[in-house]
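Here comes a specimen:
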Amino acid sequence: MEAARIDIAGRVQGVGYRYFTVDTARALGLSGWVRNRPDGTVEILAQGLRPQIEALVARCHEGPPLAVVRRVNVEWGLPPVPDTGFEVRHT
């Protein structure tokens, strides 16, 4: 089990990015959360098997149809979080 923080920049707020992430993460069997940040980016904490997290990262580069993704940064090696499913957190 691994955990990673994923930061996404671009036109990623107000375009359904968080709900796209929730649907994708749940389909991959990941736990964690996604939230909008005040600086206009989206932050994700994902926990699960590394191949599934890598698949989520690949989808983050695409995003939903109205998104324009300019940058995706991944930080591996975070401490595990309780498995409570995958949810939207508010800023």
Summary: The mean pLDDT is 97. The chain has one domain: 2-78.
